[in-house]
Amino acid sequence: MTHLAHSLSDSGSAYTSTDLKIGQLYSRKQLKSAYGILDATINTGVFRPSGKKSIWLFVTEVKSADRTPYRDKLEGDTLTWQGQTSGRTDHLIKDHRQNDDELIVFFRKHKNANPSYSFVYEGTFKYVDCCERYPTTFTLSRT
Question: For the chain, what is the domain count?
Fold first, then answer.
């Protein structure tokens, strides 16, 4: 059984992947504390920590009834993921490589799957393709 990470601290690297361990559980509360995050948008599916070259994707495969029913699925090294309904952050995903940003995936099967509503850190992913309609359906591949 995977346990919540005991410690996490900001190493000062521009890339947060250097601070995280694949397969480890992280809660939003832990991430907020470690990186000094006060911005409430960490509670959305797409978040960019200030001063970092990382884009965090928080993915819950099975949504609760009160959430937008995005269709997201992690199968092996491929994540099929729907962006925000408005498409407001789509450019962050599509352009991450040319902007020298990393895509970080935090995944959970459902909201209550892990202690403290935490997510499993799955590692870094890269943009492969997308379907241009809102919400945009992205195909991402583990790097």
Answer: 1
